[in-house]
Structures are given as C-alpha cells and as structure tokens.
Amino acid sequence: MFKAVKLLNIGRKYDAIKVEDESGKTVAHPNKKLNIVTNFLESKFQNSNKPFNEAFFGEPRKLKKPITKEVRKSINKLNNNRAPRKDGSQEELLKYGPETIDSYIANIINESFEKHEILDINAGEIIPLPKPGKPKGPPKNLRPITLLNTIQKTFSTIVLERIIPQVEKYISHSQSGFRPNRSTADVAWTHKWLATKTLQEKINITITGIDIFSSLRHNRQSNSP
Question: Rounded to whole angstroms, how far apart are CA atoms 91 and 145?
C-alpha cells in the first residue's frame, strides 16, 4: 500500500505556500508570512507550560563498539542533488570525497562520547509544506520539515542502524508510521477493511488510533541546559 501511494506522488509539485493571519486574511509579503509561520511553530515547540525533567546526558565513556566502517555505509545512503544545508555542505562532498573523511568523522563522534562533549551539529532549516487534504492558509495546516546538516544525517543514520534491531523487539505490529515499507495509508486501508467486515458479518469492533506527536515534549531540547 505504502509503495503504491508513494509512486502516485512522483513528480508532485507544490504551489507557493498560502498563509493567513489570525483574522483569516491572506498574507502576501514574504517576511510577514515568515513571521506568522515562525511564531506559530515556536508556540507549538517551545512555549509549552508543561513541567518536564532536565534532559539526561549520561556520563563520559567510550563506546563499547566504536564507530568505524559505519560512517561510509551511512554516507553511501545519502541522496544526491540536494540543496546545500545550513552548514553549507552537500551530500556529494562526503560521498565522492577522499576516504580519509570517514576516519575524521568517526574520530569526532567517538571522542564526543569519550569526552562527554555534545556535538554542535543539530542546526537545521525548517521548510513548511501544506498538509494534503487540509485547507490552505492556516499555519496549523503546514507540516514543518527539517533539513538536517549533512554530518547530522550521517550520524543519525548510524544511530538508527544500531538501535533498529533492539527497537523492533518492542514495536507493535500495529504501528505503521515510520516503519519500512509502511505508512499511515496502511492504517486507513485497514480501517476501511474492518468497517466493511463489520457490515458484512454484523459484528461490533473497537478501533483505537494513537498519534504520538502530541504526547512528546517538543520544547525539551530548547529548554535543556
């Protein structure tokens, strides 16, 4: 199902983003549109009054399994022809550069754990895209997509590959979001199939859908020491 939906989106182009102010009037000036979207996102991700515990950063220690060849494996998964990120680098710089780059990146990451130094590679650019099927204009109908720095993407892929085998042991088969070859389209199809089944067999069922987005403390990082 996910693959079929993905194929339908090939070549899809997005029009210029429409933004409305609080009164519902369309805003044309780029800077005003930027301010409205920025203020909305900040209110969603930073200004939460919910109490939270201080972020746990752990203790300085070496990795039991130092990062080595994983760097090249992660770099090879980067996509070409992408716009330069906030750090000014492009994927091709790492993919087709000298292999000595791999050891430099590996050493930086390994030392950050050993010395307990947080890498300053989290900066990214947020691009708002219209949510499909939602009215255009209200900022709440924009989905923020963060373009990560190339080094951060490389590191994130390494972390992902390491935790997947463990995480898969605990994830329910019912979860479709952020799973390989699955998406929320599978949930919608399953819901339709179950609804049809209840009508045909005249039975009662209960369907529970959980959206994890609102359960997270999105302001946690910005308020961390």
Answer: 18
